[in-house]
Write a sequence for this structure.
């Protein structure tokens, strides 16, 4: 499963960036990808509750693909948010370094859920909460029509 995640997410990263360039809006592609990511997390939970491996697996693959879309599109936003190329390069490097912690934090969240609740579903609720917060931030600061920053 980890191989599919890495292949799917990495393979879709350039597609997310390309879509952001094509539609001239990293914020909109990021927002729509985050909404798709939220839907896939909910479908993963439904697949768990329904004991449907096919639903669970398909939703997880979609989740992996959307991580790549979000990654590519959000990195396209950084130069527009920071007009100074030097600052944009610093923030891009910092963002990439922080993003690398996802591979560390997500398994920790699942370990926490399993050790405290003997279930993994609380971890998905944490991911849902994080994704909703990210959607709100992306919409409010970057994607809404009068946000002030067009990226």
């Amino acid at each position: 499963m980890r191989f599919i995640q890495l292949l799917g997410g990495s393979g879709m990263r350039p597609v997310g960036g390309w879509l952001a360039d094509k539609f001239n809006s990293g914020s909109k592609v990021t927002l729509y990808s985050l909404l798709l990511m939220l839907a896939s997390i909910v479908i993963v939970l439904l697949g768990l509750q329904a004991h449907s491996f096919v639903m669970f697996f398909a939703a997880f693959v979609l989740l992996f693909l959307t991580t790549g879309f979000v990654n590519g599109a959000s990195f396209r936003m950084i130069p527009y948010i920071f007009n100074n190329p030097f600052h944009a390069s610093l923030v891009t490097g910092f963002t990439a370094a922080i993003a690398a912690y996802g591979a560390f934090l997500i398994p920790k969240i699942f370990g926490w859920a399993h050790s405290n609740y003997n279930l993994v579903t609380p971890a998905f609720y944490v991911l849902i909460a994080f994704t909703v917060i990210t959607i709100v931030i992306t919409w409010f600061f970057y994607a809404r029509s009068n946000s002030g920053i067009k990226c």
In short: The mean pLDDT is 89. The CA atoms of residues 120 and 147 lie 37 Å apart. The radius of gyration is 16 Å.
